[in-house]
Amino acid sequence: METCSYLNSFFLADFIHLPNRFRKHAILKKISLQDISESLGISKSTISSVLNGRGDEKRVSKETQEKIISFAKEHNYKPNLLARGLSRGKSDMIGLVVPNISDIFFARIARRIEEYAEQSGYNVVFSSTGESKERESQLIQSMLDRQVDGLIIASCQKNDKDILRLKNRNFPFVLIDRHYPEINTHYVGIDNVGGVASAVEQLIHTGRKRIALVTLSIGLEPIRERSVSYQKTLRKHGIQFDKDLIHALDYQSMETDMQDVIKALIVGPNKVEGIVFATHFLTAYGLREIKKLPVSVPEDVALVSLGQMSAFDLMEPPVTSVALPSSEIGDKAVDILLRNMLDTNLEYEKISLKTELVVRRSCGNMN
Amino acid sequence: METCSYLNSFFLADFIHLPNRFRKHAILKKISLQDISESLGISKSTISSVLNGRGDEKRVSKETQEKIISFAKEHNYKPNLLARGLSRGKSDMIGLVVPNISDIFFARIARRIEEYAEQSGYNVVFSSTGESKERESQLIQSMLDRQVDGLIIASCQKNDKDILRLKNRNFPFVLIDRHYPEINTHYVGIDNVGGVASAVEQLIHTGRKRIALVTLSIGLEPIRERSVSYQKTLRKHGIQFDKDLIHALDYQSMETDMQDVIKALIVGPNKVEGIVFATHFLTAYGLREIKKLPVSVPEDVALVSLGQMSAFDLMEPPVTSVALPSSEIGDKAVDILLRNMLDTNLEYEKISLKTELVVRRSCGNMN
DNA sequence: TTGAAAGCGGTACCAA
DNA sequence: TTGGTACCGCTTTCAA
User: Fold this and answer.
1) Given CB 3.0 to 4.6 Å as the disulfide criterion, which of A129, A180, A281, B323 pairs with A136?
2) What is the 3-state secondary structure (H, E, C) of A253-316?
3) Does the CB of A80 fall within 7 Å of any strand C atom?
4) Containing H/E element for B15?
5) Chain B contact for A4, CB < 8 A?
6) How far: B49 CA to D12 C1' (Å)?
7) Is the CB of B93 inside 8 Å of chain A's CB atoms?
8) Within chain A, how many helices (H) and strands (E) appear?
9) pTM score, whole prediction
10) Domain ranges of chain A
11) What is the pLDDT of residues A314-358, one digit of tens each?
12) CA A359, chain centre distance (Å)
């Protein structure tokens, strides 16, 4: 096979002139094992072994190995991962399915997953479901079609069908943040019960008794746990639980609904002394409405957020929050997934990561 | 071929009993075109055509089509995308390379890219470079090995080698946020010059003359543009430019370096009346330090941020910012990329998206 | 109207 | 020590 005279030129080094019979539309083409084989007169199998570091194991002579490796380097040979994947039956990709990749909570998780996975040679494909069951289902399917080797899913929790299917297939996957209590799977989440308890207790310790919970009406296990923990914690401290103090907003309209909720909680006869927001974005929307009213925080009403934003300390007032270990979720999820991919029958692991209360002025002492 | 009696059962519908000669480790296996072919006694090629919607075009009889389609549906046939990709020479994946996927700016872009790309049948693989040239290079290569059909890159801008290579290969890609002035490529960015001008002018209009710029020392074109625009705008308004008022922080140590910078700008003989921060995170770090000092914003010093965070309106004081159209960047980038993938010789498009000044109290009137 | 067969670019088993 | 070859699952061309 003839090589073109540009071979040493930088930009063309990874292309090669192919014999006529191989030419299609382009004259220059990325080189393949086949090409190396023909150029060197060595079989594809030997080349494949050597290039995959199994030259010694296969007892290929030093000389041959040298020849192959230097040729490959010189022509900048790069294996086609689709072909390898097809052949090996694994793609070296993992899929990440979350409600919204631009939510800082999931973005942080994604960052860690990607970083960690990359170290083990995996790339990650991601998709946002927008909390829609249908999209989640489609997206999971599309990742499976792509032959991902494993999945990390923050499910909308209305999709037990797919989750069960994955489980029954013994497909490696890890649920994060939300799990299906009735389905036994790998799961990495946070300690919602402890988190909310610390939030409520912080309010109690600073003298509040009438404490509201602003949460979502969406059917998510973490949300439910937060609600339950809120009630339990109140009771534990001898505070009578009043169900009118729980406001569950619709995910789609929470931003606009927030106004009425906040008004109801802050002005009028039934006003409260403290509010726990069930998520970081609820806190932001809530605070935005509170600032429109003639009340002061924390004197008139104290706030605690479950989940943090990077700027809570810069707000007025600085917002007390229960910090969720997002990066750690990513770490653990990948850790389990990698093991699950090696051992399809890995015993189910369920991890609940501790939260951390970060006290700031929004729940400081009452005047 | 015999089919197992579980065929209608939900969880097994997408598996099939294979003849002995096909059995490997598992008895149940996803079905392939081959399997359908053998079961139905119809050739793979016909089945492939029909399942890809080219049945009529190929003049396959209604009857046959019907048979194929219903069999496929019943057994939940899903094409193996690796195989299809290998065969078609395209993977239907696009790669996204950004400095940090958990930075809200890029996370928002990513969300849009993913959503839009998905509509056109593409999945997206992402990676964060941490502004490292080496990692960027590796990651791009790894995406190419994966055979992505196109790339969207927010480059660290020290990687002209790879960018040139992509360009010379005629590989479809679009740069976002950062471009290489000396390399003609597709590019979607923002109007940094106009953005900074509006920031500086806002400060000037509210009575400030001594205005500082806190920026990064990193060699990024947008950063450079911001710096230049800052100087030009001052001159344009007859304000003498003082180079000591530009503080360029190191990307790695900006958080800790910020303290000295802020002190220098706010206390002492050379104090300024206004500060422009070149990025949203610099603003956050800066404000954090300012709050430690006995000065009030905007009376003693006014602030404007280039780039927004979702909670700037909740801060104390609410932060005036120049909002960057992150979602739109994603939109445009995908738009161009899709066209570039169809037409490899698409004329280079360079888009500069307008910013929007959002005035808040941090640069309100001086007392 | 349908099918055979040659790829796509690797991997891996088994023979030489 | 090395190579032949079947195969991974799908697409596509061309012949029947």
Assistant:
1) A129
2) CHHHHHHHHHHHHHCCCCCCCEEEECCHHHHHHHHHHHCCCCCCCCCCCEEEEECCCCCHHHEC
3) yes
4) strand B15-17
5) no
6) 10
7) yes
8) 12, 14
9) 0.91
10) 15-79, 91-189+327-353, 192-324+357-363
11) 998 999 999 999 999 999 999 999 999 999 999 999 999 999 999
12) 27
Name the residue type at position A117.
A
Of A78, A144, A164, the CB nearest to B145: A78
B73-113 residue pLDDT tens: 999 999 999 999 999 999 999 999 999 999 999 999 999 99
Angle, helices A104-119 vs B104-119, to 10°: value is 80
Q: Is the CB of B87 under 7 A from strand C?
A: yes
Closest Cα in chain A, distance from residue B223 (Å)? 23
Strand A246-249, strand A211-216: pairing: parallel
Tokens encoding B339: 């066209």
Q: Which of A39, A35, A61, A31 is CA-nearest to residue A49?
A: A61
**CA of B11: which chain A residue's CA is closest?**
A165
The dotted CATH code for B15-79 is 1.10.260.40
CA distance B258 to B250: 10
Whether residue A335 contacts residue A315, with contact meaning beta carbons closer than 8 Å, is answered with no
Residues of chain A contacting B80 with CB distance shorter than 8 Å: 86, 145, 147
Lookup: tokens for A204:
């109690």
Domains A15-79 and A91-189+327-353 fall in the same CATH topology: no
**Assigned CATH class of B91-189+327-353:** alpha beta
Residue with token string 């030129």: A9
Q: Long-range contacts: B248-252, Cβ < 8 Å, 24+?
A: B248/B215, B248/B216, B248/B217, B249/B214, B249/B215, B249/B216, B249/B217, B249/B282, B250/B216, B250/B217, B250/B218, B251/B131, B251/B216, B251/B217, B251/B218
CA distance A300 to A103: 30
Distance CA B97, CA B128 (A): 6
* Domain spanning A192-324+357-363: CATH 3.40.50.720: no
Q: Is the CB of A45 under 7 A from strand D?
A: yes
